[in-house]
Amino acid sequence: MYHLRTCVWEITLACCFSCKYCGSRGGKAREGELSTEECLAVAEQLAELGCQRVSMIGGEVFMRKDWKQIVGRLSSLGINVNIITNGFLFHEDLIRDLREVNVESVSVSIDGPEEVHDRYRQPGSFKRALDAVAKLSEAGIPVSVISTLNSENVKGLEEMYSIMKGRKIYAWQLQACSPMGNAAESGIDFRFDMGDVINFVTSHMREVPFALGVADNIGYFTEAEGSIRGNMSGKAVFRGCSAGLSAIGIDSVGNVRGCESMYDPAFNEGNLREKTLKEIWEDPDAFAYNRRFTKELLSGKCAECRYGEYCGGGCRSYNHFVHGKLYESPFCARVKQKEC
């Protein structure tokens, strides 16, 4: 039996941006997005399965007029909600609304120093994102920053650090840009040395009052593994892809997949207009790429690595979009350091 713990829910594809590296090609709402009533029913189904936390994404969440009603229902059911936003649409009424629905936290996307961030998004967006961080913090709403890294903006990490270290945030997460959606079509060079990012984290994570760490598509199992994922206990190791094991993704028209970053119809396990979430989650044939994983599926260096059966070859989504091999990490820091 698999227990659902977390969900990433794209409630709309509508967005005030159309970023060059947006994996979901955000901009316009999809035709036939779930109605308010359907979204409220999804919230009930998530609660029924015991989901503890929903990360709500877009597009841009606040482009959907009924976002407050949906978040409010999730919160009333005891589900913690984190909203991920570009920070462009913030105003005082929005802050009030966030407090009224008891949102757990808000994550603001900031992807480089001002010139880089604005070029990938739009002019003025960097200052407005920082202003959103300040407004949220002043209102007592926990706020974090997420930075999506590629070959260009990774060079600005030290400059970004000088900006972040003075902010009242509780976390700064670094994640790798995946070559999907707009990122693939615009030809962004997504490659960088993950070992360098890990070294950046280890050199600064004890200097700041917030959690500094990497996401699940950066790693794996270097000497620093237990302390680079936002938890310096030494025990916070990557335990393999959780898609379909304890996590799911839902898109704005009701497609369900193990992870919302697995943005390929091949990973759709069903649609909520045709089946209930419980039926999809409990289908014995669903999420087979993870539920039927064995170490014999590992390929390349991952098949030789002594941590392979624990790591599982890293992030399924990143692997798929980089080279199509689900069970082989293309840029594992252990391989770079010749530790396998």
List keywords for this structure.
340 residues, alpha/beta, ten-stranded mixed β-sheet, 14 helices, 10 strands, 31% helix
Structure description:
The protein has 340 residues and is an alpha/beta fold. It has helices at 36-48, 67-76, 92-100, 114-120, 125-138, 157-164, 182-185, 194-204, 277-281, 288-291, 301-304, 308-311, 316-323, 333-336; strands spanning 6-10, 53-57, 80-85, 105-109, 143-149, 171-176, 211-214, 247-250, 255-257, 270-271. The mean pLDDT is 94.
How do the helices and strands line up, and which of them pair or pack?
Elements: E1 6-10, H1 36-48, E2 53-57, H2 67-76, E3 80-85, H3 92-100, E4 105-109, H4 114-120, H5 125-138, E5 143-149, H6 157-164, E6 171-176, H7 182-185, H8 194-204, E7 211-214, E8 247-250, E9 255-257, E10 270-271, H9 277-281, H10 288-291, H11 301-304, H12 308-311, H13 316-323, H14 333-336
Mean pLDDT score: 94
Output the helix-strand order.
EHEHEHEHHEHEHHEEEEHHHHHH
Q: Look at the helices and sheets and give the structural class.
A: alpha/beta
Shape: globular
Count the beta strands: 10
Order the strands across the largest sheet as they lie in space. 7-6-5-4-3-2-1-8-9-10
Instruction: Classify the beta-strand content into a percent band.
Output: 5-15%
Low-confidence stretches: none
Number of helices: 14
Radius of gyration, CA atoms, in whole angstroms: 19 Å
Amount of helix: 25-40%
Q: What is the rounded distance between the termini?
A: 33 Å
Largest sheet: 10 strands, mixed
